[in-house]
Amino acid sequence: MVLLTRGIQGVFVMPFEEPQDWSEVDWTGLSAVRLDYSLSRPALHTISPDHHAALIHAVERLRERGYRRVGLFVRRAAEKRILFKWTGALMSYHQGAVPGERIPPLIVDALQREDFLAWFEAYRPDVIIGHHPIVIDWLAQRGLQVPKDVGFFNLNTTQEPHPSAGLDLLPRQLGAAAVESVVAQIQRSERGPPLHPKTISIEGAWVDGPTVRPAATA
Asked: Which of 1, 33, 129 minimizes the C-alpha distance to 73?
């Protein structure tokens, strides 16, 4: 194997757009972690944002700002890559919400203006959670202003230059945790896929921004 012949002992498997099966790779001489769940096989130790907890806590803080009808839009591939933790979190939260506040998430293969606006018109969320601030422009074309008429909360503020409220998924902390995990495996002479894979999850941090209404002051 090329990695072993070059003296490489540690491997970091970065996220893929679609799930990958690398079970045919010889892992016996390697210490490794994956940075999310897109490597379906073999099951390695995993370092990942705590998407479920982050979304639950974000919805709670949005409700503190008066939002009640929370709409979530995601791409199917991205949601599948994290084991449906965003939609799972929102739908779990909906179990305690009144029926009029339960908005089904928009899950699409590719985000299209027509699909988004049709979903928005059908359910009229008062705050929208998603990855792509382009929807702010689409809403503006319908005469709707953010955050005056509807709020927008970004699932990953580090990926988009548009200033917005959202989640900082803390990539530096995730990277540091991945390095610590691989180094510890090397020091303990742990090689190959683990019998009982462990997951380290780090909850993203709330980032205030101009796309949601400000918190009430005492």
From this structure: 129
Residues contacting residue 181 through CB under 8 Å, at least 6 positions apart: 33, 45, 47, 200
- CA dist 36 and 81 (Å) reads 7
165-168 and 205-207 as β-strands: parallel, antiparallel, unpaired? antiparallel
The candidate with the shortest Cα–Cα distance to 56, out of 201, 216, 214, 211, is 201
Whether residue 152 contacts residue 136, with contact meaning beta carbons closer than 8 Å, is answered with: yes
Strand ranges in 8-94 using DSSP code E only, listed in sequence order: 10-13, 20-21, 31-34, 39-41, 45-49, 70-75
Whole-number Å distance between alpha carbons of 46 and 36: 6
pLDDT digits (tens, 9 = 90+) for 174-185: 999 999 999 999
Residues forming beta bridges with residue 46, ordered by sequence position? 34, 199
Residue (of 218, 216, 217) closest to 65 by Cα position: 216
Instruction: Give the closest residue to 46 by CA, choosing from 54, 36, 55.
Output: 36
Token reading at 21: 């099966």
pLDDT per residue as tens digits for the range 156-203? 998 877 899 999 999 999 999 999 999 999 999 999 999 999 999 999
The token pair at 78 is: 């991205």
- Which DSSP helix (H) or strand (E) runs through 32? strand 31-34
SS3 168: strand
pLDDT for 217 beyond 70: no
Q: Rounded distance, CA 206 to CA 169, Å?
A: 9
Closest to 74 in 3D by CA, of 19, 147, 156: 156
